[in-house]
Each structure stands twice: as C-alpha cells, then as structure tokens.
## 1
Amino acid sequence: MSTALAETEETVEKRADDLAPVQEMVLACIQCGTCTGSCPNAFAMDRTPRQMWRLVLTGRKEAIFSSQTFSLCSACYQCTLRCPRGLPLTEAIGRLKQIAAKERLPRYKKSTRFYESFISSVRRHGKVREMEFMTLYFLSMKNPFLPLKFSSLGVRLMGRGKVSLQVPSRGKRPLEYLFKKVEEMEADG
Amino acid sequence: MKYLYYPGCSLEGTAAEYDISTRAFLEAAGVELTELEDWTCCGASAAEAVSELLSYALPARNLALAEKMSQDSDLLVPCSACYLNLKKVEVKAKEKAAFREKINRILAEEDLLIRGKTRVRHLLDVVSRDLGAERIKKHVTRSLEGLTIAPYYGCQCLRPYRVFDDPEAPQSMAPLIEATGAAVHPWDMGARCCGASHMSTKQEVALELVGAILKAARGADAVATVCPMCQMNLEAYQAKVSENIGEAANITIVYLPQLLGLAMGLSEKDVRLDLNLAVDPAFRTKLP
C-alpha cells in the first residue's frame, strides 16, 4: 500500500470519529422532511436537508462531504424550531462545517477561508476589523478578480467613513491567551 | 431603566448608525446605558464554523466582563448575531455546571469567571417589553403619519430561543411602528432569512432570498430592521436584485431606533440617516 493511500484512509477514519457526535445529535430523526420544507436555502441544495441527515446517520461521509448542502445553511434556525423531534439541527450543521474547516476540504474553500479570515482578524485585535478581514480573505483565496466583486460596496462604505483601508497589522492580541487555551483543550480532547 | 451595553464589532464599523441611533433614541426615552468595558468579538457566525469551544469561549468572556461590572444585570445587545451567541452561552451556563467549569478554565487565565447571572437582552426585547409602545407614544413629537413601514425581524433575535416574540409570526415591532403614527405594511416576510454571510460567499443564493423580501416590501415606504447583517443585505444589493428580478427593488432600509428616534423629534443627523446605503428621496420628502 502506498503512503498516500494510507494517509487517505487515515483521514477517512478520522472523519468517521468526528461524525459520531453529529450522528448522536440526530439519532431520533424520523425522516419527516420538516427541515427541508422549512429551509430557505433548500432550493439551491444538491441534496435536501432530510437526505443529508439520512447520510449522516448511515455514516456516508463521502456523500456528505461531496455535497454543498450543509455549507448552504445560513443559520436561520427555522428547522431547529420546527423539528418535531426537537433535534438541534442547526448546531449539528455547525459541527459538519467544523469538520470541513478542520480538514481543509477544497470544496468548501470559499466559506472556510471566509470564516477563518474573520477569526484571524479577531485573534489579532480582539474585535473584527472589517476591511482587514476582507483583505485577509482576498489574500487567502489568491484570486486577483475576487476583490472586484466587492469594490463598489467598499467604495460606498468608505465614502461614508464606515470602513477604511487597513493593511493586516499586528496588534496587542488581547485574546491570544483564549485562543491558545481553546487549542490546547481541543488537542487534549 | 439601566442596562449594560454590548455594541459588537459591526456597530463600530459598517453599522455605525445603528450604534449612534440606539444610544440617541434610548437616551431620549430615558434609558441609561453603560458600555461593557473591554468587550471583544462574540465570534459572529464565523467561530461556530471553525471551532465549537471557541464559539462558546468568545461570548463567555463578555458575559464574564458583565458579571465583573455588575453581579446581576441585563446586557442589551442590538446585533442579532451577537445576541444569539451571547444568549447561547447564558443558557448553557445557567443549565450546566460542567459547561461553566470548562469555560472558566479558559477564562481563569485572565482572572475572569462566569456564574450565569447576566441576562442577555436583544434591543427589540427591551424596547418592546421594558419600554413599550405606550411610553414611546408619549415621547412622539413628530408623527410619522402617512408613512408605511415593513417590520423586518430576521432570524436570530427570534430563533431558536423563544424569548419575547412568536418566532414564526413575530408581532413585537407592530405596536412600536404604530406608536410613531406610521402604518404597518402587511406582509409575512418579517421572519424570513436574508441569507446572512452567503451574500459574500454564495451571492446568487442570498440574492434570491433578498429579492423575495424586497419584492414583498413593495408598497411600503421603508423596511425597519434590528440587525446589522439584515440591514446590509437588504440595503446594499438593491441594484443587483433589481437586475435579477427584472423590476425596481429600491426601497429605504432603516434601523428601528432610527425610525423611533425620528418620531421622537431627533434630527436626521442625530440618527445618522446619511450613513444608510438605501434612503429613497421619496422617503425623505414624506418625513414630516
């Protein structure tokens, strides 16, 4: 067996471990489809939320992480509110997003990098600096045309003095201890 | 009435007018705010997508700061995303000793501690229940009669926690709008999602959601919001939405405290209407 293949299998197994707590959260799912009927983003999904929960319960990791469904959740909590079994569905989707971020799955690069850039700005300053966050996002995406999509809004916001050009900067890092401690505790499991 | 105040990051930047108008309106209504000292980011929707523990630790630090300032207080939060993140930790900290213990192990490095004493309150909760439409009516010096306002609540101040309003068919803004003399636009889009951060990462999806909301708002003179993310999504992409739906989707989008402030005699400058991205000239003309 080649090393590359061994690593792949290890990754898949790791993902199965990560999936276990999510499976537990939706164990009582009766496949009624209320989540699908309540989801404002269902129209754009390749698999419905109901189908995705079935894939989670049957441990179909490849299918879950080749679909855009969980990354299309905008956290409106409509499904969580309406689920007749009272399952924490939005929270469970958050866990799937965390797995995708942790494994740096390329399919979710846009959302993952967006969130990570935000958090990185928070880690530097304790608060998010909106222009710095967007600059970090553009840099991480390495797409020279991406900033153009946002330029007209950026100009309107700058015109009102709401944002200013900010080069990613070093700060006092008031939350560094908190981030470090969280990482330490997560590593310990 | 006294509250601790957590503005959140957006209110120091793209939503500056939400911060300014909230402070000005509440002061005019006799409410006293004390800003939370040394507050930091709540994690927004980003922390949950990166790490579960981080998504609790970031808001928890702010609740610990609130407890340090006052043993037992109400923390007023205008941003719905901040509100929900802080609320989640409040609820978990009240329910579970193990959760408090875990979080306190992190906060101990800064000599902070959460006991689960702070009550997290959304601005709309405080305005609709503590202040109330009747009291606001007494402060109204400039009736907004002739204007029709569409109340837009968004998601996270309503769901998943059922605190001050019906999470499916919210009503709390209606009496407040009526107190100003304005009429309430009849619609059922007030609790529909605006797409949140999809506007940056999956824009075509968010534009669909915003398109449906703006279309349903036709007939109103303005939409009133209580969240900086909703406000931005509804006001900043109207040209693209118009192109998408093939008809003009332009409409004024204001924060609720701006509207209430105007009715209470504050000037456009006091509530910084100049900072909004979508204010229709017709809206200004109709303002008495």
Note: Residues 1-5 of chain A have pLDDT under 50 and may be disordered.
## 2
Amino acid sequence: MSRGAARAVIALVVVMAAAGCGKSASSSSSPAPPKSSSLTVMTPAPAGTYSSPVTWGLYREVSSLDPIFAFDYPENTAIASMCDTLLRQSPEGVVGPGLSTLTYTNPTTLVFKINPAAKFWDGSPVTADDVVYSLDRQTDPKLGGFYGAVFNRTKSIVATDPSTVTITLKQADYWLPGELASTPGFIVEKKYVEAKGKSFGTVTGGTMCSGPFELKTWKTGDVLAVKANPNYWDASLRPKVPEIDFKAESSDSAATAALKTGELTGDYPLNISTLDELKADPNLHVYLGSSMSSDAFIVSNAKGPLGDVRVRQAFSLAVDRQGFINAVYKGAAQLPRTLANPGTWGYAKDVFQKAWDALPEPTPNIAEAKKLIDQAGVKGKTITLGMSSQLNNINTEALAFQAAGQELGLTVKLHSVSAQNYINFFIDPNARKGIDGFFTVNYPDYADPAGLYATLAVPGGSQNYDNFSDPQITSYMEQARTTADPTQRAELMVKAQDLIMKELPWIPVADPDTILIMNKKVTGPPATFQYMFGPWLAKLGAAK
Amino acid sequence: MARRLVMLVVTLLVSSFVIFSALYVAPGNPIAVLSGGRALPPSSIAVLEKRYHLNDPFLVRYVDWVKGAVHGDFGVSITLHEDVSSLISARIGTTLELVAFASILILLFGIGLGLLGALRPGPLDTGVIVITAISAALPAFVAAVVLQTVFAVNLGWFPATGNGTGFADQVRHLTLPAFALAVGSLALVARVTRASVREEAGKEHVQTAISRGIPYGMVVRRHVLRNAAIPITTVAGITIASLIAIDTVVETAFSLNGLGSYLVASASNKDFAVVQGISLVLVTIFVVINTIVDILYAVLDPRVKLGSRAQ
Amino acid sequence: MSTVAPTAGRLVRFSSRGLHRRNWVVVVCITVLVLAVVVALVGSMIAPYDPNLLNLSNAYVGPTGGHLLGFDPAGRDLLSRLLAGARTTILGPVAVVAISVGVGTGVAVAAAWLGGWFDSGISAVVDVLFAFPGILLAVLAAAVFGPSLKSAVIALSIAYTPYVARILRGAALRERAQQYVAALEVQGLTGFAICLRHLVPNVFPLIVAQATILFGYAMVDLAAISFLGLGVQTPQPDWGVMVSEGETGVLQGYPAESLAAGLAIMVVVIAVNLLGERLVDNAQRSSH
C-alpha cells in the first residue's frame, strides 16, 4: 500500500510542478512600457436599446445611498446613476448646467434657476426647497456629512422663489460651482428624507432622486438594482437599458471570471491585475480614459518619523514606482510628476501642462534617499503602514513601501484591516491610531487640482489627517479660490503645487488612467472619470 | 432517546452561552467590541446599549439574546446597517446546497470506492487504497487550488469562482467546490466501508452461507451490508457534520456567497453581531446532525439500547 | 474532523506482510518529519535569498538562475519563502498537540482514576466541547482577540482536547482495571504516584500515536485558518498563507506559489498519517 502511495505522490508532484511553470525571466530593472496616448473619452454610441438587465461591478458593497456620506467609488457609481447634481460635469470635465443653470449677479451672489422639467421619480417637481434642504444637510454638524468644508465661504443658501435658489458668499469662491457639479451637489427630495428619518440611504430607507435610473431593489450580498426611468427630464440621457444591477466582486479573480463569462457586463475597476488577459478576451472591450485619481500614500501622523520632510522625501526617492505601475496597473498609469493627475486639468490646460513638463519624472535614487535619512537621524526607527491584505493593489503598494523603508534602514510594520473596513482609515480617528499613514487612490470632486489639494494641504481640509500646514501654500490656495480668471487661478495653483511637491504631505505613487471594461454586446458610456459624478451610465445601450 | 434530546438541548444552550459570552471575553468594553473599535456617534451607542440591554444583569442579557435568536433576531450588522437575520437567510441556501452536494459525493464515492476495494481484492483494491491515501492528505483548500488550476483555468470546463444564477448554472458553479469539500473527507468513509465490509465478509456465518451455495450477491446484501451499515452510517454522518467547518474554507477559496465565507469576512471586518449569529446557526446545524447520527446508530444496532451511553 | 477519526487506525487492519517491506516506509516517514522539523527551526537561516525581499518586476517569473522555484506575485523568491514558512506551519501544530494532549491526558487519567461525579462532570463537559469544530472556534477566537497564530493555536487546542480525553479515558479505565494497579494500591502508593509512574507510561504508546495523528489534523486546520486570513498574517511566509497569496496567480495561470505550498503541506501530512497509523497499530498490539 505504502509503495503505491509513494508512487502516487511522486506522480502528483510531477503534475503539479508541470502546472506550476511561471513566466520567463525579465531583466532585473523595471522597464517602462511605452505610454499609450490612445485615451478614449466616449465609447462608440449605441445602435439601439439593450433588452436585458446589465450587471455592473463594484469593488465592495455600497454602504449608503446618502450623498453626504458618499466619498468612495461604489457609493458614487451607484448614486450618480440615480441622482442629479445642481450643475453637471461633462465627460471632458467641463462644468455646465445640470438640474439648474448658474448666473452671477456679482462675485458673491450665485443664482441657480432650476429646470422646470426636473421631476423626482414620484412625479413631484424638483423645487428650490429640495435644493436648499439637500445642501443644508451637507453642512449639518448633527448629520456628520463629509463635505461640510466645501461650504465654508457660504453665508446663506435661500429659496428666493419656488424654482430659484440664491447662494450668498462671505467671499468670492470659484471652487463652489465645480463642487456643486459633484457629490456635494446631489439633490434629494426633502419630504422623502424627512419621512424616512434615520433610515434614509440605508437598505431599509432607500432614496428618492430625479435621475435616469430609479432604485428598484437593494439586497446586500446580492445586488443593488436600479431600473430605467422613462420619464427622465433630460431627454438626451433617457436610458437604453432596462436595468442596471450593481454587484460587489470580492477580488480581482472574481471580477475577471465574471467579466469573461458575461456574468458582469461592465466594470470601472481602479486597477486589475488581469488587464492583459482581459484585453485579449474576444468578448470584451477594454478602454482607457483620462482619470482624476491619484494613487498616493497619506501621511497621517506628524509626530512620527514621517513628520520630518526629509524622511518623506527619502521615501519618495526610494520607492520603485515603475515596478509598482507595471505589476498593479499593467501600464495603465503614469509616473506622477505632480500629485494631481493630468486628468484634473479642467481649465487653463496650457498652464498646467507647462508646469508638468518642467518637473522631473520621479525615478529612484537610493543614495540620495539614504543621505536624507542620515540627516534626519531616524535610522532604525519604526513606522507602521495602514493597509489591507485583501485589496491587491494596496497590498502590493504596502509591500513596496516596506521594501523601500527597509532598504533605508527603517523598520516598517504593516497593519492590515479587511477590505470592507479600509474606509474607516478615512473617517474614524480610532482607526488611525498607531499608524503613520495609509494608502489611497484619491480624487478631487471635479476637474481642478485645487479640489484635491484643498483637502490635504490646508488646515481644516477633510483629508488633512496630520494637520499639515504651510502658510505659503494656504495663501496661494485661498487667493486662487478668490480669483475669477481661470488662467490666473491656474498660475496660483501651480505655485502651490510646486511647494506641495517639495513638502510631500502625501507621497504620490502613480497617476492612473480610468479603466472601462465592457462586454462587446454593450457600448456608450464615457471612459473618463466623470462616471463618478454624472448620469453617464445612462449612455449604455446595445452595440448592434 | 429522551436522553439524547436532553443532551442536544444542553449542548445548544451551553454553546449559545459560550458564543454569547465571547462578547464579554473580548478585550475592551462590549460597546467597543460590538462596534469593532469604531468611533460611534452617541445616538448609535444608545441604540446598541438598548438593544443589547447592556445596563441589565448578565443572565438577563443572555436570556434576551437567546429569545431573540429563537425568533430569528440576531441583532444588526455594524458595517452594513442591516439585520443579521436577513444577511443569514440570503446566504444559508448556498451553504446548504454546497454541503448537500458534497454529502452526495462523499456517500457515492466514499461508499462506492470502499465497496469496490472490499469486494474485488487485487489491483482494484490497491488502486482504491492509493486514491484514498492521497485524498485523505488533501486539505480542502489545496484541493480547491488544484481543481481551479486544472478544471477551470486550464481546461475551462467549470467556472473558477462565483455563485451562478438559476438552478443549472448554480449546480455548475458548485461542482468544483463540492468536490474540494468532499475529497478530503471521502477517504475516511471509503476506508471504514472497506474495512467493515471486509470484516463482515470474513465472518463465519457469511462463509457458511457461501459454502451452502447461496448466491454471492444475496449473501452480500443480506448479511454483509446490513451489518456493515452501522459503522458506515456512523462515520458518514459524522463526516458530513464536519463539512460544516471545512465549508468556510471552500466557500472562501471559490468566492462563494455563503454563510461560511461571510462568517470569515465578518470576523475580519470585526462585525461581532454577525459573527455571533452565524456561529450559532452553524454550531446548531453541526450539533443537530451529530445527534441524528447518534440516534441512527442506536436504531440500527439492536445491541445498543437507546438509553445507554455512547461509549 | 470527526469523533471517529482518531480511532480510524483501529478499524484498518493491514494484512500481515513481511516486516521488512513495512520498515522502509517508516524510515522514509521519520526522515521526512525530521527534515520538516529541522527546516522549521532553521529555515530562514538556510534560505538562499531573503524571503521578504521583493522586486515587482519579477512577479510570477518561473525557475531561473539561482531561484529554483521561481517567484511569487510580489517578486519574492519562492523557495526561500517556503523554507522560512516552515516555522509557523510546523511549530504551530506542535504547540496545539502539546497543549491538547497534555491537558487531555491529564483530565482523562484524573477522571478515570477518581470516577464518580468528577468523571461524570468531565464527561459532560467533554461531550459539550465536541459541539465546536476547530475551525469555527478559531474564527470566533479571531473575532474576539484579533486574528493571530496565538488565538488560532489556543482555539484548536481547546477543540482537540475532548478527542484526546475521550480516547485516553477509555485506555486509562482499562489500565486501572488491571491487576497490578490493585497491587500497587495495597502497597500504599498514592493515586497520583500510580497514575504518574505506572498508568501513564503504560498508555504512552497510545498517547504518542494519538499525538502523531492529531499533528496531521492540526497542521491542516492551522494552515486552513491562515489561508482564511485569521491565523498567521500575511506577509509572513506561512504555507497556509502562501496558498492564499498565490490565489491571484492561480487564476492568471501561475499556480506555482499555491501548488508549492500546498504540496509541502501534503508531503508532511502524508508522512505523519502513515507514521501515525503504524504507531496506532503498535499501540493496539502492546495493550493486548
């Protein structure tokens, strides 16, 4: 018996060894793949209506449909299909009319006239009261919404007549229109929210909006289903699919398998390790578009070794960004000369492009990094990185930072939480206890580098976890916010950006592209980042 | 019979007590554990205190929890703000289907291989021994990887992950997981079957029947199998019960949306109410199956009186 | 794991073949196990490369140059990780077996000796503990104390103790009924002395056999718990963790990490199982 068993084991070993052959060796340095300039904005328009429900992938379950708590990809993707913003961002990132049009009476008085055709799903018109109520909720401290800081120059928001809202500012604020074309500007129905109370936005309470898709069913562990709203007030965006089922895919492999079998019709993955395989699949189209997101390391503890700017600069010089981009993004990202992604240049592109061209491409320089560590005198100290071993890109990123840190003579510990809990680093001070920083793929609310920098580089910013403060940066940003002329605003932003790239409150790792993967049976939506803020999934339809 | 039912109830009570008390064994105060260490607004804390009766004496809290559990109220998930009972009912189907599928495979292949080896000695028997030796050493998660590599990625006959929609598609999706779940356990059933059938076949009265000219098939059925059924049923039942625990591993490996994978996810999400609810459900199923096996054993073996101890 | 499992050796009778044919199997098994323990103790020192050194451009590359098994998804040398990972994979189960066999034997012998309400009480507790399969208890422990190797080891030890206790109680009862025990009592030895110096040594072959078989189960269970992410934590190179880390590779067509780690586990478990069966057989014979 045992002899036979031994023979069987040997056979098994041979089989497993044969199956386990890997790739052929590549050169030891990290070559940069040629940057494809073939970025798409809109995918080909659909030929007609698609008759079946479409399944759309998310990286985790939607936790809330309340816009004041929406600051991550799953929530925004779902809410943007159902709700309208006061103003709207086009797929190219240009801010224009949405539920309302905007006129300036003077630099501190903004008048929003609501489109009389705009209606909620229950047939009630969208009124000025609903708008005022929705915006007030964003700043109500009792509710604890995420976007309060956006309104810190607002003096009053008043319904001057049933279809007009006037916002008066303490000081000119040229960031506000962009914000109102984004998550802070989603409008919900006042009487519905009041009726649902605490359960609004949850599985039991649902939501009431005016968008091209209406909430149908929401079962956690299953799908969040939205059905077409044939009476959508914007006729150009009436859906050509009957239903979208949003489904959470627990891992790259689950998403890949689902896309290949057609179980998932489409997905906007932040990154997917099987990108090459998916590009080669005969049933799928893969599009890359410009993105507003930045892959970066957030420094959250100014009291630890990373509080010293030299240590941050040392890490920035030691991290193997190209290796990381090759491994995780498979080429769908570029080296970050600036923290803000070029996809955020929604105005004065030439000014930002000039600044980008003048900055060097970040390449590793270990010798220089070690010198900085010696100067800072932190050799042998310990830092702890917040991450999640369940999120493939963050796991790889953390390992890369750990390797860099160890090369510099520091001890780097990893503190892992589950994928579902990762969001707590952003909202819960308890979760940040004991760590020096954590990773993010972050983005501004609209196409403006200021949208991102304001959250992290000025005191009081919603993502400024270590109270980073540089009076010069703050001054440039405040001035920019008050400046009407886009070119001048851009020049002020560039000055602030130069300082941010020197002081590194966040350490940039990559500037990714938006990835859109769709089954060849459907087409239509944009391949740009604006899927997060506008009703662009309504462009989905049948390919033939 | 009554004694076994009493043991069942006592075991369930004690297990539920252990699961309930885990909340208080955990470091930190109960609110911190229930919230998984998250900072909560005061209104949410008040809700938790009220729901878990944290200002009442310990036993009162326990009784309330058990009463709630019996009525299907297991509390609320702190990450999804949803009733634990609805989270469980959405997933229990997958788990039960998977365990049932694997049980069928274990009975089919386990008993089948055992019979083959016992009744057809020689090279076939050696083959059976080799197969069971390997499968006994194959942990479920390694089997999962091997099956995924060979049958899903390389051959493409079955999907590698996911649940599937609709009955036929679900069966297809659960095939590889069911085999992964069954393969480690069927070895034991096969070996016990082979051993007890051989033992019975070698017994005097069987040899006598054969020498008297009674057809071999009838002898096997009437004498050998009936007596061999006792240990086989016992080990099969216990093996099936043990599937409950291994199921967590297989569900995770194949990204199935079942109770097992969700138990693991909520443990790593620090969603304590969900962990307690699912643990209670799984332990209950496990204990009930074991009790049924005990009773079946007593029923089948006339020598064992229903009132006597198992050992 | 079932209540029947530890007694499986009893039910399988090997036809009596020549002793010389069986010996080489035992030798091979013991060699494998000694090798495993040695690697567990010095693995990270004899590893050719740093198991934690990553180079993302080498992700998934197959065997090349000095890297006999190739690389894992983060570009770390697979062989080095396998050698370094032996430590937690092998020593964890050793701890589980030590605790559960130690406590289980002590409790069982005491129950068998003292009898009466103590015995009934222990038996009742043991019966109830059977309700918790090892993995479920470990998941609960991970939720309560946070996922770690320590919480998994303690949980499994608690879950395995009843099996040891039940088997050893039966054996201890049989020993107690022997003539020599009565003789020793008459001579004035205390119960404790009789148990420690005579009873336990006589059931020692059974203890060793059970410990060996349990080691196999503990190794698989602990690796499974680490695979679930609730035991040893990534990026530590435990074999169970490596099977889980390699999953993304499996679905992309690079199953090297998962298969290598899985195979390593299987080789040790097969060796332990074969050895354990022999020991159980010997224990049977020596007790009759």
Note: The first helix of chain A runs from residue 2 to 19.
